[in-house]
Design a protein that fits this description.
Blueprint lengths: L2 H23 L7 H16 L3 H8 L1 H8 L3 H4 L4 H10 L1 H21 L2 H5 L4 H63 L1
GO cellular component, one term: dynactin complex
Organism: Trichonephila inaurata madagascariensis
Pfam family, one: Dynactin_p22
Length: about 190
């Protein structure tokens, strides 16, 4: 199929789809907009009549809209009593934070001392230590892999020896049974 033929086919399909969609959406020119809306309203009223749950939901739609509004949070504020209760509930945690901050304030003089400022930059040494740590981790991973391989080889060897011993045991048992039968028969 050529590009032109596929394009024409696609255009025909789109045109058919548009006709199908728009033909069902075109309002009847004889119906007025208000009449249509009244008809829909009457249908909704008849559907809702006698159903208390739906009526209750409709009556609470305004409240629901109010609670779902993003600005609702700004309008809700705590009373002074509620704020006081929150502070009292968190009193221990607040006191603990104050004590910790006081300790930091008391110890800040040691962090800003001349001795610490006089220390040359430790970044190059820290980098060397980091590189050594990475190398040690790689070596440990390699050693772990080798150890696992050795354990697997050991397990295979033990399994092979066990099978061999079982085979020899069964062979000896058969030989002993044969020897006992010969002695009994002679």
């Amino acid at each position: 199929m050529t590009d032109e033929a596929s394009l024409e086919s696609l255009e025909r399909r789109i045109s058919k789809l548009e006709r199908d969609v728009y033909s069902s959406a075109i309002p009847d020119p004889e119906n007025k907009c208000i009449e249509t809306l009244m008809n829909i309203h009457n249908r909704l009223q008849s559907a809702v009549t006698g159903r208390e749950k739906i009526t209750t939901v409709f009556s609470k739609l305004d409240d629901l809209q109010k609670y779902l509004d993003p600005s609702f949070k700004e309008h809700v504020s705590l009373t002074e009593t509620a704020k006081l209760n929150l502070v009292l509930l968190e009193e221990d945690r607040i006191r603990s934070a104050v004590d910790s901050l006081q300790t930091v304030k008391d110890l800040i003089q040691y962090l800003d001392s001349e001795h610490i400022r006089a220390v040359p930059s430790l970044c190059p040494k820290l980098y060397e230590v980091s590189q050594a740590q990475i190398k040690l981790q790689e070596d440990a991973a390699e050693l772990t892999t080798e150890t696992r391989q050795l354990i697997a080889n050991y397990d295979n060897l033990i399994m092979s020896l066990s099978k061999q011993f079982i085979l020899w045991d069964s062979m000896l048992t058969e030989i002993e049974k044969g020897k006992i039968k010969k002695e009994v028969s002679s």
